[in-house]
Amino acid sequence: MNFESVLAGLPDAVIAIDGSGRVVFWNAAAEELTGRSARRATGRFLKEIVAPAASLVRRLDETLATGEHRSEPEAAIDTVEGQHIPVSVVTAPLFARDGRVEAAVAVLRDVSRIRQLEAEVRRGETLAAAGRMAVGLAHEIRNPLGSMRGAVQLLARELGAESPLLEYTDVLTKEVDRVNRIIEMLLDLARPVQLRLVPLNLHQLLERVAVLSEEMARERRVTIVRRYDPSLPPIAGDEDLMLQVFHNLVRNAIDAMPNGGHLTLMTRVSRHPLFGKIDLGTGQRTFVEAQVGDEGAGIPADVRSRIFDPFFTTKDRGLGLGLAVCHRIVEEHRGTIQVESTEGRGTVVTCFLQVAK
Questions:
Q1: By CB atoms within 10 Å of each CB, which of 35, 45, 181, 298 scores lowest?
Q2: With left for phi above 0 and alpha for psi between -120 and 50, is residue 89 left, alpha or beta?
Q3: Tens digits of per-residue pLDDT, 170-192?
């Protein structure tokens, strides 16, 4: 058996160095994880390829020096593009016939998906708590709100059409309606989502959202750019709910560009290493990507992980429920939603959605 072929085909990254620290093996998974080809890596000192202070370098050096295994469940490695990927690292010595350590090998496992799933569980618990709170508050608040609205309408009728005080009754009515809308949004977090899954043309869906948003985009001097994959297969989705998701994302993108810019709608069959294909228990399913990108100020790094949390918002006005509801809808479709943002350059929100059977 060719053991090098076995190592080359492993899904985890395998990197080996000799006693001097030069790379002697770099499998295909290591290429995919780091973005560096084996041809360019082999023969070079590992410290020239990876930051000398990186966990991978430290653990391999320790293994070479001591001849002992090392492991680190919480480490990270940087890709060529500068992306910071969480990994677990395990190292082992390779001994020569005379018993001395002549090389060391490291196995790196990408734990990005695990970390994301952990975050999803935490977020789900927060959503559930918010939903329970919403149900409890809704009944207590709605009854007095209904009474207030009725009383204001009666007052407006008594004042007559010519009364200057009608301006204030109009304000009261609108504010009561606004509170009711807030309660409805809260209840959206509590209600079980009833999906009516049908094959949907994603491009037609996005075009409907674009048409509805044209006037708002024109007022903000925002140009909508389409980059659609013409070979895109239909997705499995609930039309009304998916319209709600993309309408929210497009509106957020427009809001992010008060001075104008380009809003990009892009679709493609997913090539993402984690979300391109996912085993859902009934076999692997192909996913497509629907991206909404803006050229706004971007999302600060210190709050990026919280944008899907209920009641969190970076806007001056707003409840912070829109993205939380979008996240829940996409999750109910057994998809996932991701945000990539660079301060000063903009934000891209990607929805990974199942292809219809």
A1: 181
A2: beta
A3: 888 888 888 887 777 667 666 66
β-strands 84-95, 70-78 pairing: antiparallel
| 319-to-68, 197, 291 alpha-carbon distances in Å | 54, 29, 24
Could you tell me which residues come within 8 angstroms of residue 225 by beta carbon, excluding any fewer than 6 positions away?
A: 262, 263, 264, 265
Neighbours of 337 (CB within 10 A): 21
The torsion angles phi and psi of 258, rounded to 5 degrees, stand at: -65, -20
277-279/261-269 β-pairing: unpaired
DSSP 20-76: TSBEEEE-HHHHHHHS--HHHHTTSBHHHHS-TTSHHHHHHHHHHHH---EEEEEEE
Tokens of 180: 């009711």
Cβ atoms of 181 and 149 closer than 8 Å: no
What pTM value is reported for the model?
0.60
Name the token pair of 128.
């559930």
The C-alpha atoms of residue 239 and residue 195 are separated, in whole angstroms, by: 9
* CATH numbers and ranges of domains, the chain: 3-110 (3.30.450.20), 115-190 (1.10.287), 198-354 (3.30.565.10)
| Confidence (pLDDT) at 349 | 94
Per residue in 324-338, pLDDT (tens digit) is: 888 888 988 988 888
DSSP string, 150-165: HHHHHHHHHH-TT-TT
Query: Using one digit for the tens of pLDDT, what is the confidence trace for 113-151?
Result: 677 767 766 766 666 666 666 667 776 777 788 888 888
* DSSP-derived 3-state class of residue 144: helix
